UniProtKB/TrEMBL annotation:
CDD domains listed in its UniProt record: HTH_TipAL-Mta
Pfam families for the chain: MerR_1, TipAS
A GO term, aspect molecular function: DNA-binding transcription factor activity
Keyword line: Activator, DNA-binding, Transcription, Transcription regulation
Domain called HTH merR-type: residue spans: 7-76
Name the UniProt record assigns to this protein: MerR family transcriptional regulator
Taxonomy of the source species: Bacteria, Pseudomonadati, Pseudomonadota, Alphaproteobacteria, Rhodobacterales
Length: 257
């Protein structure tokens, strides 16, 4: 029988796809994958179209999408090929980003193993226009229009500063050195309050607006979730990327009334 007219029972399709019958029943219940029809005996039967739809669903599951997100993606126009092509572009971009992160981690490992921490000076070189645009686009994609407005405000604030971006990076290097010293001394935010005061004040200057406790705690979330920041802070000191966001939140909590 040709595949175009072949029909599969739920157990046959589950076996072909490497999933459980229970999974297919669940997909049916939530409307994600409906059988083509039912046999006279009441058995679910799936055709080639359903088999291809299941393959697409499993691709999206492998990409890390939730079932609700998959249902939304499946409503996008362009057919399965168009939808998968868009996912391929996203994966290719993610692979490129991860390759860059791996390179950063390799450099961090090298600096730790050789004791050559001079390369951390590279962290304070202003980004190229291309890299900055890429980074800003990533933030806007993640945090939406409010982030786009915040970036514009920050850009205007930096442009108005006599010292410019290079001066800010020099100050950031000094401020972060104080935080690293507190970390290596085993301090918490309570004992290193002055270092965190300086860091929060610098963030406010760079943003061009106040940095209230909630915003500072939100920045901590970005530091611990964005691979670029994780790699950056691991290059400053091993395990610093874990300590800094945790203590930033503790510092922010202490500021709240």
């Amino acid at each position: 029988m040709r595949d175009s007219v072949r029909e599969y029972t739920v157990s046959e399709l589950a076996g072909l796809a490497g999933v459980s019958v229970r999974t297919l029943h669940h997909y049916h219940e939530i409307g994600l994958l409906l059988p083509a029809h039912q046999s006279r005996g009441g058995y679910r039967l799936y055709g080639q179209a359903e088999r291809l739809r299941l393959q697409e669903i499993l691709f999206y599951r492998a990409f890390g999408l939730s079932l609700a997100e998959i249902a939304s993606v499946l409503e996008e126009p362009g057919g399965a090929a168009g939808r998968l092509r868009r996912q391929r572009h996203r994966l290719a971009a993610e692979a490129e980003r991860l390759a860059g992160l791996l390179a950063e981690l390799d450099r961090a490992i090298e600096s730790i193993e050789t004791g050559d921490f001079g390369m951390t000076d590279q962290l304070y070189a202003p980004h190229s226009a291309e890299k900055q645009a890429e980074y800003e686009a990533s933030l806007v994609a993640t945090y939406g229009v409010e982030m786009a407005q915040a970036i514009e405000t920050s850009r205007a604030a930096v442009a108005a500063m006599p010292e410019g971006m290079e001066g800010l990076m020099a100050e950031l290097k000094e401020v972060e050195a104080g935080l690293v010293a507190a970390f290596e001394a085993g301090q918490t935010a309570r004992g290193a309050a002055e270092a965190f005061d300086r860091h929060r004040a610098l963030m406010a200057r760079m943003w061009g607006e106040a940095c209230p406790p909630d915003a500072y705690a939100g920045l901590a979330g970005l530091y611990e979730s964005h691979p670029d920041f994780i790699a950056r802070y691991e290059r400053l000191a091993p395990r610093f990327s874990k300590w800094l966001p945790r203590e930033m939140r503790a510092y922010a909590d202490a500021l709240r009334p």
